[in-house]
Amino acid sequence: MNILSFFRKMPIWLVLSLWIISAAAQNPYYRILTPTNADLHDFYTWAPDRMPLVSAHRGGTFPGYPENCIETFDYLLHQTHAVIECDIAMTSDGVLVMMHDDNLDRTTDATGPVKNKTYAEIQEVHLKDKLGLVTAFPVPTLDSVLSWARGKTNLMLDIKRSTPIIRVLEAVREAHAEAYVVIIVYRLEDALTVHAFDPSLMISLTMSKPEDLIRANEHGLPDSVLVAFTGVSLADSATYQTLHQHGITAILGTMGNLDNKAVIKGTTEVYGGLFEAGCDILSTDLPTTLGEIIQKQYSLTEAERKYFVFPEG
Predict the structure, then answer these.
(1) Contact 88, 96 (CB under 8 A)
(2) Disulfide-capable partner of 262 in 45, 161, 247, 267 (CB 3.0 to 4.6 Å)?
(3) Which residues belong to the active site?
(4) SS in 3 state form for the chain?
(5) What is the pLDDT of residues 203-212, one digit of tens each?
């Protein structure tokens, strides 16, 4: 029996199902693509009609899907466009792994400080979801996350205090990931370290008032490499106006308090008000909820369309 005869004998519903699965498998993701450094810089340059953006705090958390976990990132991008904020720690033998807390207790079935564990010991660990249930998912390395993200989305890399920034920058360079990575720092000194290592790298720097941007510029940081993290509560309007006048997009952290307020008061009302106030990107624990709101209420500009790919099928 040849392949054509085989398909002719199959029920039509099964043929259609296989076709749908095959089509979806070609591109099952909501992708954000920035192939070059120039694209990345353009993607984060502020424009008055730009579509708001979801940043998934710690990559998102869902029942059965833990934070800082590749399987969670994958699950998220099957549902919405999002950049992924994730955290980097380092083992005692110098391997960079994805972990927010200093200790393993909250997010895994192990205990003790990450920095006291070898990578071999970390490989035996399983992640917990937000309900505290142990999953089959391992702790990923930074290298594996950089590899996974290529052609899917942007990463915002939050470097924990005990992790040398230079080690992370070297890993990004070795993975040739400069076109889809933003380095998160909280101090101007650290931003200058990143910029000295590679002037093309995008940097998320805490800037909660206009003076913070002025100081960054005075120390040689150009607007073109900056994304502004304005904190976990709204900054005043002068801050957003100043950032936007410089072409810099503003990230607000809604994780925790503002996300909880959105659940109580209504997500559309709260998130819509934040965008109207001048926020461009929300770092949220509710990425799929926010993604649905953005898809319904906002449209991509012609200039943005090349960066956003929708699932096929």
Answers:
(1) yes
(2) 267
(3) 57, 100
(4) CCHHHHHHCCCHHHHHHHHHHHHHHHCCCCEECCCCHHHHHHHCECCCCCCCEEEEHHHCCECCECCCCHHHHHHHHCCCCCEEEEEEEECCCCCEEECCCCECCCCECCCCEHHHCCHHHHCCCCEECCCCCECCCCCCEHHHHHHHHCCCCCEEEEECCCCCHHHHHHHHHHCCCHHHEEEEECCHHHHHHHHHHCCCCEEEEECCCHHHHHHHHHCCCCHHHEEEECCCCCCCHHHHHHHHHCCECEEEECCCHHHHHHHHHCHHHHHHHHHHHCCCEEEECCHHHHHHHHHHHCCCCCCCHHHEECCCC
(5) 999 999 999 9
Which pair of structure tokens corresponds to residue 174? 């070795």
Residue written as tokens 């990575």? 181
Give the model confidence (pLDDT) of 122-169 as tens digits.
999 999 999 999 999 999 999 999 999 999 999 999 999 889 999 999
Residue 182, beta-bridge partner list: 156, 202
* CB contact set of 204 (below 8 Å; sequence gap of 6+): 156, 182, 183, 184, 185, 226, 227, 228, 229, 251
**pLDDT of the residue at 81:** 98
Contact 139, 115 (CB under 8 A): no
State CA 308 to chain mean position distance.
15
C-alpha 118/C-alpha 123 separation (Å) is 9
- Determine whether 49 is exposed, middle or buried from the number of CB atoms within 10 Å of its CB (0-12, 13-18, 19+): exposed
Half-sphere exposure of 7 (CA within 13 A, CB side): 7
87-104 core/surface letters (b: 16 or more CB in 10 A; e: else): bbbbbeeebbbbbbbeeb
- 278 pLDDT exceeds 80? yes
What is the C-alpha separation between 278 and 48, in angstroms, rounded?
Answer: 10
